[in-house]
Amino acid sequence: MAPEDTKALFAEAESLGLFKPHGAFEVHCSHCHARLDSRGDCATCGLIGRPASELERRAQTDPEGTSKLLRVAIEKRKSFKPVGAKEKA
Predict the structure, then answer these.
(1) What is the DSSP string of 34-73?
(2) Which of 7, 26, 42, 56 could hold 47 in an S-S bridge, CB 3.0 to 4.6 Å?
(3) pTM (global) more than 0.85
(4) Is residue 88 part of a domain?
(5) What is the count of structural domains for the chain?
(6) What is the pLDDT of residues 26-46, one digit of tens each?
(7) Domain range for 28
(8) Which long-range contacts (CB under 8 A, 24 or more apart) does 80-88 make?
(9) CB–CB of 1/10 below 8 Å?
(10) Does the pLDDT of residue 1 top 60, yes or no?
């Protein structure tokens, strides 16, 4: 994947508010309140519990893996519907 594509994914993730580093004691997502995984990421709404700078460093050695992580998180956030939310007519 080209570095430009990765930069675009980082920009989109930032615009969606996906990067929210948590403290070591946090076990629930600050966005949807679901349980966080061992890395602090939320499987429900796509929140990434690590700083963007950490993923930018990872992108230098594993661009494909980082791009996949960002794409999946962005897709989860876009498809996330809070419980009890009403459809817009």
Answers:
(1) PBB-TTS-BTTT--B-S-HHHHHHHHHH-HHHHHHHHHHH
(2) 42
(3) no
(4) no
(5) 1
(6) 899 999 999 999 889 999 999
(7) 19-79
(8) 80/32, 80/44, 80/45, 80/46, 82/32
(9) no
(10) no
